[in-house]
Amino acid sequence: MTETLSQVGRPAGAVGSAPVISQPAASPAGLTTSRGAALYIGALLGPGLLLLPGLAAAEAGPASVLAWAGLLVLSGLFAVVFGSLGQSSPSAGGVIGYVRAGLGARAGQVAGWSFLAGVVAGAPVVCLIGAGYVTELTGGGTLTRALIGTALLVAVLLLAAGGLRASTAAQVLLVGLLLGVVIVAVAGSAHSAHAANWTPFAPHGWQAIGHAAATLIFSFVGWEAVAPLTTRFTDPGRQLPRVIAIALAVTSVLYLGLAIATVSVLGNGSGTSAPLAALLRDAVGPAGTGAAAVAAVVLTLGAVNAYVGGAAEMAVELTRRHAPGPVAPGTRPPLRFLAVIALAGLALISLYGAGLASPAALVAIPTALFLLVYLGCMTSAVRILRGPARWAAAPAVVFVAVVLAYCGWSLLAPVAVILAVFLAGRLTRERERGSSGAEVMPLAK
Fold it and tell me: Which has the minimum average pLDDT: 78-92, 145-159, 425-439?
């Protein structure tokens, strides 16, 4: 199939979500409601779902379900806003264009680099998630998990260097695999649920719900990646509300079902780094651990491969000096870019392997970066949209700002990006002024 996972300025989803497939521009066929719903669902589900329920339960206990519920409301606001942005700015270049339209070119650069940095920092986290399910099967501690995570990262980079890109069929297969694993885990383990596991409801205090939300937002990034697909519908006004409703309903049932099952079934053990493996083990026996490991590895390789490809195209768009134009999707990522991902990935995985950083700490870095992107998009939407979409964007700005405030030390990552973009802009202006002065001096003589 000729469809690819991303286009220029339209990153293939966030690392916490499954990659998004966009149809080629030349495709004459419109996007059907059922196919559009499948792509939207795929944008919101991904390997992050394999780890985050456990992290949230460890941070807030049973009260973590309130964080899930609140973020599902926020997800609905995102859906309305990005759907409207996709229709009003179909060629805006993804998050860069959405932020630029309302806040200016410099803010658009901040959004683009923040998203790119989030993908670079998130890729090794996803590899560690997959590695956690492998060690759940084979045994081994932190160092073993770090080594397996490194092997997965190297494998993905080799695939990317070879120019291998996933197809639409692969995307559908990955989403179907994740849906099947979650459904079997939740339904099959229901017999082991215990009401006593819900007390105390907020063992770490109500403030912990905010920290859990800051962790879980990693699973709700994805609406920005499917926004460009709105122009592919044959009748957007009729189809888009249906697609959004279906995607929200499916993801809400899956997310809340998994969150409730994690607490109800696992209880004190809900803080595990492989909650789905534990639920599957309870549902189908020892074979469940093996099935979870296979699913985790497949999802990791497929998703991160798509992320790297999409991020590479965004990097080309951000660094080109001439007028923007289309970057051929599916082209091989520059080796320098792959080297950056390798170095950053190995550094983050090494921190985990040395016991200096927990999975929750590593997840916090890309989460803060993605939140900054969403804050920019929602703020821009308040300025440029009208009607219901604008009313959805306004509370979303407040919600994102509140969650961002709970990110703690990881806020240093988006602050660093902001400072770097503004410093680079200042140096560029000074260099241009210097060049202009050098050209004028001979004339002054």
Answer: 425-439
Range of the domain at 379: 33-414
* Rounded mean pLDDT, 303-332: 64
> How far apart (Å, rounded) are the C-alpha atoms in residues 12 and 422?
26
Distances 12 to 94, 271, 337, 373, 384 between C-alpha atoms, Å? 10, 30, 16, 15, 25
Q: How many domains does the chain have?
A: 1
Q: Which of 302-306, 329-333, 403-407 has the lowest mean pLDDT?
A: 329-333
Residue 299 inside a domain? The answer is yes
Separation between Cα atoms, residue 242 and residue 383, nearest integer Å: 26
* Cβ–Cβ < 8 Å for 221, 370: yes
- Looking at the chain, the whole-number percentage of residues with pLDDT higher than 70 is 84
Contacts of 395 (CB under 8 A, 6+ apart): 77
Mean pLDDT of 251-279: 88
The answer to the question of residue 349 being in a domain is yes
Query: What is the rounded CA–CA span in Å between residue 92 and residue 17?
Result: 22
- Average pLDDT value for residue range 77-82: 90
What percentage of the chain reaches a pLDDT higher than 90?
A: 37
- Tell me, what amino acid is at 89? S
List pLDDT tens digits, range 15-28: 555 444 344 443 44
Structure tokens belonging to residue 115: 């998203």
Asked if 263 and 270 touch (Cβ cutoff 8 Å), the reply is yes
Residue 34 structure tokens: 């059922």
Q: Is residue 22 part of a domain?
A: no
The pTM of this model reads 0.83
What pLDDT shows up at residue 11? 42
How far is CA 221 from each of CA 245, 294, 371, rounded to the nearest angstrom? 17, 24, 9
Residue 213 lies in a domain: yes
Measure CA 160 to chain center: 19
CB distance 148 to 296 below 8 Å: no
Q: Judge contact between 391 and 435, C-beta under 8 A.
A: no
* 3-state class (DSSP) for residue 134: helix
Q: What is the pLDDT of residue 12?
A: 41
Label each residue of 236-291 as H, E or C: HHHHHHHHHHHHHHHHHHHHHHHHHHHHHHHHHHCCCCCHHHHHHHHHHCCHHHHH
